[in-house]
Fold:
Amino acid sequence: MSVVELTRTGWGFAPGDTIVSGLRAWACLGGGRRCESWLAWSMAWWMPVVLKLPRPGLVDDPETRADLAHEAGVTAGLAHPGVQRRYHAVLDAAVPYLLSEYVEGPTLDVSLDQDGPLEPAEVALLGMQLAGALRYLHGRGVVHLDLKPSNVCLRDGRPVLIDFGIARPIGTRRRSGAPRGSAPFMAAEQCRDEAATPATDLFALGALLFEAATGEHAFHPRRLGGEWLYPQLAGIGPDPLPGPLGELIARLLDPEPASRPADATEVLWALARTLPDGTRLWPDWLDTRLP
Structure:
């Protein structure tokens, strides 16, 4: 069987089938080239969880096992309300897997498809909550590298960042291969497969907020032959949106990392200043305490 065929083969569990000891299949949530994610029922905890495991033909593949081990290492110890929790990793079993929190609620892309774009104040509040999660991640030395609407779950309306499959420590590069990410949300430096930096996540946040405000991608990369053509690399961005919120999104989408806001804290402040009077995400007395 070819590598392509191996990456297309799924497990095909029926509801109630045992995936690994103590975990019963509920539904397949999707997957990438090497791994699948399943909604499962924990018999010990009596609650739903998310299980990520290699595709059947890649259980013994060293690269696939290395990817799971890398993700387990990057996400170890992360604890923030806006970040999906990793419960534990089993990496030395016959079938290695990661066990994570099931974040119940629609993803942002589904919500936008069903309800349409958000109002400016809603975009700002969404951005502030995501910037808070990024501020935490970057403070822990982690860059997500795949921030997009389908990787944001809305739990009771509050965004939770999921899927750390390609996250990396700040300053590190991929082991090998072509750039990884979701093409419309990749900063120019990510398209060039440069070292991971917080500025890359801030670019993706800008692309996400543009889509939340308009219902459209900010960028439209396309394949030509076997290669991607990224308008981000040519500095070709969307027409700016009006007002202070539009100005901030334009800064986030700047092709030069140094021209974007300095960090997620600056983004928090800038978004707060776009809100109508009387709309707050934190109490007034915190204004003097946020660096």
